[in-house]
Amino acid sequence: xxxWSRDRFAALFEIGPANVRDCIANxxxxxxxHMGKRGSEIKSSYNTLKQVQWFLDQLDGGMTFEKCIxxxxxxxxxxxxxxxKDIVNVHPRDEVSDGV
Length: 100
What we know:
mainly alpha; 4 helices
């Protein structure tokens, strides 16, 4: 759980913004670096491009402190509260599984 949280944090606050910075700095080079991938690299490139698109959509119209706070709260609810509630609903505390 802690590793998952660290990965999510890094994706949102380190890797994602770095990819956006690289894309803005040289869009052609950034896109070309994701072309011609094979196997599991295709999914990784797709996820990177999808994440960059998400960041750029959020930046549309400029970024304000208020917009940043709203985005952070919304993200937290979606990624942490809502997903945990879904897991608890699917696997209640008194659930018994075979073989475990």
